[in-house]
Specification:
The protein is globular. Helix content is about 30%, strand content about 25%. The protein has a seven-stranded mixed beta sheet. Helix 2 crosses helix 3 and helix 3 (about 115-125) crosses helix 4 (about 145-155). By secondary structure, the chain is α/β, with parallel strands linked by helices. The chain has helices spanning about 35-40, 80-105, 115-125, 145-155, 170-185, 200-210, and strands at about 15, 25-30, 50-55, 60-65, 70-75, 110-115, 130-135, 160-165, 190-195. The chain has one domain: Alpha/Beta hydrolase fold, catalytic domain (Rossmann fold, 3-Layer(aba) Sandwich), CATH 3.40.50.
């Protein structure tokens, strides 16, 4: 058996909130495993008055229940992972270029939740868009990223690292490991620990979307 690959063109879906003509920042917010972009974006409605917020959807969808009623999306699995990483990095690049035609040169900020933490981290490291802020919420930094790569991807950005103390999916040890890895790379981290689980907290959201300290 010989494994082969071919590059194909496909259609990606994304959802937006806010007015790109008056927004002070462009946010690209990346959902977690098993979510859909339109439902994930609902949590950002209060932030859309002064921001243009875009939620891309993972390229792979699947049924999340036995009755095939609920659908979720994922960014990648361990299967053919290098090509899947390349595909979602290319996807975010293309999306960003398209959004810039609407927003002009306003600051870019990125937000990753759960699996989205690894997705935005790889994008920042491998392509290095000029994001002024990165919010990494309830997820793990990719294990393959070196200290030098993390330095290149996150240096000179505001980095908010968020964790729910009752998170049953991501242990606090992961939060501490993320912080230690970034600090070893010389990245200044703003930690946020809140008394919740694997979810978005509105109080912390307001802090992350507020002006940098």
């Amino acid at each position: 058996m010989e494994e082969r690959h071919i590059r194909v063109q496909r259609t990606a879906r994304y959802h937006t909130l806010g007015d790109p003509r008056t927004a002070r920042s462009l946010w690209i917010v990346v959902h977690g495993y098993g979510q859909l972009a339109r439902f994930f974006l609902n949590a950002f409605e209060e932030q859309a008055d002064t921001n243009f917020i875009t939620a891309p959807e993972g390229l792979s969808r699947y049924y999340t229940d036995a009755t095939h009623q609920r659908v979720g999306a994922t960014w990648m699995t361990r299967e053919d992972r290098e090509n899947e990483i390349q595909d979602h990095v290319d996807y975010l690049d293309a999306l960003y270029a398209s959004l810039r035609l609407e927003t002009g040169d306003i600051p870019l900020r990125v937000f990753g939740f759960s699996q989205g933490v690894a997705t935005v981290s790889r994008w920042l490291v491998h392509r290095g868009p000029n994001a002024v802020q990165a919010v990494l919420w309830g997820g793990s930094l990719p294990p393959e990223l070196t200290v030098e790569q993390l330095k290149r991807g996150f240096h000179s950005r505001t980095v908010d690292l968020v964790h729910g103390a009752l998170d049953q999916l991501v242990p606090e040890a992961t939060f501490r490991s993320n912080s230690e890895r970034l600090q070893r790379a010389g990245v200044v981290v703003r930690p946020h620990l809140f008394p919740g689980g694997h979810n978005l907290d509105p109080v912390i959201m307001d802090r992350c979307f507020g002006p940098p300290l």
